């Protein structure tokens, strides 16, 4: 049975982090601030950018009071950065109804954001939802995935293409799509939309994880709190997918990702079988 989510204002606070993002951030901000009254506030944490990112942020903030820039002295990672901004939202005297965690290499539109909010307003058991993401070429991205396992991660890291393809296939969620909604193990955090109450119920991101998979951990904690994690199949937002971990095989990002995975698997006590059976969206409804 569906449960109405009532009383939440139809406004969104956006949480964005930047790090040498000059090629993307202007278009991202223009799309967010262009949402009109739907955009309640924007908090951008800059991780010590060495390019023109901070200048773009400050110039834009001077023109629109909804944008708040929170510069850091250096790169403190995705988890701490997002938590800094989320705390700002949670501490607001007048709070929005929703929080959108957004990558700086995205371009949003009102139809996609409102479509996700429509879904959450109809079902209060949804803790986080993500819209369809497409690349610059319009190709859909696998934004909703099964919870990771060690075999999946090893297969995806294998240099043999057939083995990689097997790992990719195991990541794809198998839950049926009903009314344009699919339950997934986790959503990549390029675009999350959550009721503000989800952060109060689940808590902030785990700062023991510097960079990935903090998004997986938080989604699994949503499941543990009895909340659904869903992908909404509908209007898409553009995601250019600036994956810093793919630039070099040996890099700080990749090292931190391996450390983050080790922390995640140790925390949740599994390597092969996730602790929760992935929810089928027809159960209990």
Could you say which overall geometry the principal axes of the C-alpha atoms support?
globular
Largest sheet: 5 strands, mixed
Percentage of residues in strands? 15-25%
Q: How would you describe the oligomerization state of the chains in this entry?
A: single chain
Radius of gyration: 18 Å
- Mean pLDDT, all residues: 92
Order of helices and strands: EHEHEHEEHEEHHEEEHHEH
Structural class: alpha/beta
Uncertain segments are 280-285
Number of discrete helical segments: 9
The strand order across the widest sheet is 3-2-1-4-10
Number of strands: 11
Amino-to-carboxy terminus distance = 4 Å
The helical percent reads 25-40%
Question: SSE layout and pairings?
Answer:
Elements: E1 12-18, H1 25-33, E2 39-46, H2 53-63, E3 67-71, H3 77-90, E4 98-103, E5 106-107, H4 110-122, E6 126-134, E7 144-145, H5 150-157, H6 161-171, E8 181-183, E9 186-187, E10 191-195, H7 196-202, H8 214-224, E11 228-239, H9 252-268
Parallel strand pairs: 1-2, 1-4, 2-3, 6-11
Antiparallel strand pairs: 4-10, 5-11, 7-9, 8-11
Helix pairs in contact: 5-6
Features:
disordered C terminus; five-stranded mixed β-sheet; four-stranded mixed β-sheet; 285 residues
Task: Describe what you observe in this structure.
By secondary structure, the chain is α/β, with parallel strands linked by helices. The protein is built from nine helices and eleven strands. It has helices spanning 25-33, 53-63, 77-90, 110-122, 150-157, 161-171, 196-202, 214-224, 252-268; strands at residues 12-18, 39-46, 67-71, 98-103, 106-107, 126-134, 144-145, 181-183, 186-187, 191-195, 228-239. The strands form three sheets. A five-stranded mixed sheet has the order 3-2-1-4-10, with helices on both faces. Strands 5, 6, 8 and 11 form a four-stranded mixed sheet that branches.
């Amino acid at each position: 049975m569906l449960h109405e989510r009532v009383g939440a204002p139809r406004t969104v606070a956006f949480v964005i982090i930047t790090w040498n993002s000059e090629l993307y951030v202007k278009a991202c901000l223009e799309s967010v601030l262009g949402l009109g009254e739907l955009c309640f506030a924007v908090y951008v944490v800059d991780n010590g950018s060495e390019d023109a990112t901070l200048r773009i942020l400050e110039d834009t903030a001077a023109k629109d009071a909804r944008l708040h820039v929170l510069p850091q002295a250096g790169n403190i990672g995705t988890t701490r950065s997002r938590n800094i901004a989320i705390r700002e939202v949670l501490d607001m005297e007048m709070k929005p109804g929703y929080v959108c965690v957004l990558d700086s290499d995205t371009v949003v539109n009102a139809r996609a954001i409102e479509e996700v909010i429509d879904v959450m307003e109809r079902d209060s058991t949804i803790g986080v939802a993500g819209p369809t993401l497409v690349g610059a070429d319009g190709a859909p991205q696998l934004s909703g995935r099964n919870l990771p396992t060690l075999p999946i991660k090893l297969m995806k890291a294998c240099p043999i293409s057939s083995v990689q393809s097997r790992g990719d296939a195991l990541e794809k969620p198998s839950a049926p799509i009903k009314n344009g909604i699919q339950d997934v193990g986790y959503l990549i955090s390029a675009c999350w939309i959550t009721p503000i109450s989800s952060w109060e119920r689940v808590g902030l991101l785990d700062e023991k994880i510097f960079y990935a998979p903090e998004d997986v951990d938080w989604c699994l904690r949503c499941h543990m709190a009895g909340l659904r994690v869903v992908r909404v199949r509908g209007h898409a937002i553009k995601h250019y997918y600036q994956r810093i971990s793919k630039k070099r095989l040996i890099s700080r990002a990749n090292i931190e990702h391996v450390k983050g995975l080790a922390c995640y698997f140790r925390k949740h006590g599994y390597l092969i079988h996730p602790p929760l059976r992935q929810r089928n969206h027809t159960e209990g409804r």
